[in-house]
């Protein structure tokens, strides 16, 4: 991990902008939550502007003092109409086009709120940690304070052997949105004019829109709360069922159907169980695949479960499997590593960035057949070796600690960058104030 810059002693007034904020939802919604709590622990003043869809959950989860730091924006009639129309299209098209349009409209309202907040109460810096997609448009420009955006990720395609998973309509939508984003970034200059852009890796840096004026820094976007996801106690190795677990959205690029197909030979041999946690558009199709293969007696479809229930399931699992084919981050995988559960993952994208052969079994996605066979071989290998499971479980937790993939560490690093951006902005303002006034203006 990059060395953390010196933070200094000044307290920052931070406005954080993120559409969704949650401690218990999935994906990037937890990023702003952990930045908020860790920035506050560092002594900074933070106000959050986010979407009203998370209001009830946040009010139930947070103490009143923390909840009072939030301002919420609601959908207007146009956003509601776009949401209804988007549901007609394939999920990937809905996400790439209609959800992006909805986000743009939301950001317009958020920008107005940010400008009003800066004008009324002042701010040292505006921080936008989500959306993490590098191509996503930001409206956070000319808001009265320096803007820091990220850490961003993305710019990633499916492995070459799996590109056909995206149909023609989806491929056209991807190409169109990537081209269109170049134009939109010229019109809505949040990222072009930001003081600092944080990117997860070189791939994301290369995917930035052209014409960036600010500094670009590399900071990985994902982390795990190592204080919350504690190592499980030492487990006796029973001679009974070997259990595998997956947690995530049921969408095609998560690779759940490949996992089920890879599990079939082990299921027919007996002595194994697969727990599938999550929901999504492919839930019914995966259920049908399990029934067609005749392995329903050893696969449990849990659906979406409360976080504490998932933690309990993870603590009882013998291995975690992440067959995702387009995963920029990998928070669920990192949570398993933090608990000490050995991991099998795809050697592509986030899994290859946040883990390695020293702490996980990574399966190359060279072809569909090879990928399925590789997952089968990896699960069989772990099932046969309690010693390997224990070794990988210990190595996973150690890897996260060694590489600084803890939210407390990451938040300190990002806070230092915010501090630097604020300091540079104040210095520019001071120098501008000291510049002599042209004689023509005096006259």
What brief labels describe this structure?
443 residues; alpha/beta; globular; 6-stranded parallel β-sheet; 7-stranded parallel β-sheet; disordered N terminus; 47% helix
Structural overview:
Strand 1, helix 1 (30-41) and strand 2 (45-51) form a beta-alpha-beta unit. The chain is built from 17 helices and 13 strands. The protein has helices at residues 30-41, 55-61, 64-67, 77-86, 91-121, 168-187, 190-193, 202-206, 256-269, 283-292, 307-316, 331-339, 350-354, 368-384, 386-403, 407-434, 439-442; strands spanning 13-17, 45-51, 70-73, 125-128, 147-152, 196-199, 215-218, 242-247, 272-277, 299-303, 319-322, 343-346, 361-363. Helix 12 (331-339) packs across helix 15. With 443 residues, it is α/β, with parallel strands linked by helices.
SSE layout and pairing:
Layout: E1 13-17, H1 30-41, E2 45-51, H2 55-61, H3 64-67, E3 70-73, H4 77-86, H5 91-121, E4 125-128, E5 147-152, H6 168-187, H7 190-193, E6 196-199, H8 202-206, E7 215-218, E8 242-247, H9 256-269, E9 272-277, H10 283-292, E10 299-303, H11 307-316, E11 319-322, H12 331-339, E12 343-346, H13 350-354, E13 361-363, H14 368-384, H15 386-403, H16 407-434, H17 439-442
Parallel strand pairs: 1-2, 1-4, 2-3, 4-5, 5-6, 6-7, 8-9, 8-11, 9-10, 11-12, 12-13
Helix pairs in contact: 1-16, 4-5, 5-6, 9-14, 12-15
């Amino acid at each position: 991990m990059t060395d953390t810059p010196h933070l200094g002693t000044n307290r920052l007034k931070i406005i954080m902008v993120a559409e969704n904020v949650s401690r218990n939802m999935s994906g990037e919604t937890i990023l702003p939550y952990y930045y908020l709590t860790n920035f506050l622990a560092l002594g900074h003043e933070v106000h959050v502007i986010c979407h009203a869809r998370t209001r009830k959950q946040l009010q139930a989860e947070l103490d009143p003092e923390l909840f009072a730091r939030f301002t919420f924006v609601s959908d207007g009639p146009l956003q509601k109409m776009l949401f209804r129309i988007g549901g007609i299209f394939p999920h990937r098209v809905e996400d790439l086009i209609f959800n992006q349009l909805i986000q743009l409209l939301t950001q317009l309202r958020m920008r107005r709120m940010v400008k009003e907040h800066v004008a009324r109460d002042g701010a040292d810096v505006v921080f936008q940690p989500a959306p993490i997609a590098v191509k996503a448009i930001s409206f956070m420009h000319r808001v009265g304070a320096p803007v820091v955006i990220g850490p961003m990720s993305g710019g990633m395609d499916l492995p070459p052997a799996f590109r056909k998973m995206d149909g023609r309509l989806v491929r056209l939508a991807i190409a169109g949105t990537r081209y269109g984003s170049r134009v939109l970034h010229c019109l809505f200059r949040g990222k072009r004019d930001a003081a600092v852009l944080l990117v997860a890796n070189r791939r994301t840096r290369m995917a930035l829109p052209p014409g960036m004026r600010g500094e670009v820094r590399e900071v990985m976007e994902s982390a795990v709360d190592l204080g919350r996801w504690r190592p499980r106690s030492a487990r006796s190795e029973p001679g009974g069922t070997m259990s595998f677990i997956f947690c995530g959205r049921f969408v095609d690029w998560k690779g759940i159907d490949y996992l089920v197909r890879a599990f079939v030979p082990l299921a027919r041999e007996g002595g194994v169980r697969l727990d599938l946690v999550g929901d999504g558009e492919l839930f019914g199709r995966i259920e049908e695949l399990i029934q067609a293969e005749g392995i329903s007696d050893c696969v449990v479809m849990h659906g979406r479960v409360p976080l504490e229930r998932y933690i309990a399931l993870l603590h009882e699992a013998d291995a975690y499997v992440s067959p995702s084919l387009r995963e920029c981050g990998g928070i669920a995988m990192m949570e398993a590593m933090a608990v000490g559960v050995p991991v099998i993952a795809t050697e592509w994208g986030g899994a290859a960035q946040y883990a390695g052969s020293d702490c996980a079994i990574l399966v190359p996605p060279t072809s569909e057949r090879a990928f399925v066979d590789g997952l089968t071989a990896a699960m069989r290998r772990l099932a046969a070796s309690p010693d390997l499971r224990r070794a990988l479980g210990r190595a996973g937790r150690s890897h996260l600690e060694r590489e600084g993939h803890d939210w407390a560490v990451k938040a300190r690093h990002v806070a230092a960058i915010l501090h630097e951006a604020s300091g540079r902005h104040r210095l520019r303002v001071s120098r501008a104030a000291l510049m002599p006034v042209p004689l023509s203006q005096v006259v």
